[in-house]
Predict the 3D structure of the following.
Amino acid sequence: MQKQLLTLLTLCLFVGLWSCQTNTNITITGQFHGVVDKNIVLEELSPSGTKIIDSTRSSSEGIFSFTITNVNENPTFYNVSYNGSFVPLLLTASENVHIDAVGNIYNNYVVEGSEGSLKMRELSRLTLTQSQSLDSISRLYETASDPEQAADFGRAYGSKYIMLKRSVIGFVIKNASSLASIVPLYQPVFGSKFIFDEPSDIVYFRVVADSLAKHYPTSPYVTSLQNDLRRVNDAFALDSLVSNSGNTPQEVLPDLSIKDAAGIIRSLSKTRGKVVLLDFTSYSTPEFKQLNKELLSSYNKFSGRGFEIYQVCVDQDKATWIQSTIDARLPWITVNDFMGRDSRALLTFNIREIPTRILIDRQGSIIGRNLYNRDLDEAIDKAL
């Protein structure tokens, strides 16, 4: 043992200490069972596209290997491809990866030696079966001749899609510090339909971008994601919030159109004809739970008579806010544009303090500010 250690130290001194400490290579070995003497291709996926970096022939037992040299410090996406199918990998310098697959390699593979690639495998297992099921239901829907049967297929598709999306959202939130979380953001379910295809899904892009920027600030994948976000930020802000329409002599209020936790645009103008409490708040304030408890009491008393609450949150922790809102199951409208204290909703209504409440009558005029408890109930009852 001492002789082996001495030999290693001597080697380090001979070739240089740095080269012994740092391995910038990646080794990929694998076996595609039944794939005899076929061309296996190694592709690197960059934000600008896919390029072939190596190829080899499998042996009589389907065995192959690749070595990637001079790998940079950031994890990189690769595909090992054969016959139109591939194994997706997320690899880091010094990893020794082994792949074993049979049949359609994307459907039936295992991978060892790479944490990032294991997350990619988890994602493929999560999405594969449900995506295939969605594709089948979609085809049945398109070919159904009976309207009732088509409606059943439509409902089945919607239910299955919601299940898939919830599962993938869970994966993204759990793995937000891994580059693997980028993949489902751009992943199609089938054809041209993507998992994250709603305008409100920009929330998840931001969650991932914020997290990855802390862990991999120099990664080209993170830079590309941040550039995508910059391109849509202005459009998202305009889409999320209608600008101030200005006060008329009739004191018509400006409209707000902001998305809720489910990604649905909720417009303040849609509540016209009701008595509305416009509530500017934040989950981070210490009194939030108590104030919401009081609001629930008022809502239960008066909602049946035409009372509504339009609650604007200014929390910027997107994942936490979405999950908290879903868990709370609030019966009123709750929205967030995730712009924090720079929210255009605050600017539009000149809100300087959180929390702030504005009570609006059926005609859209302001009839009270910062009313609480009994005072709020009395004002609502009088307006109704």
Q: What stands out?
A: The longest helix spans residues 115-143.
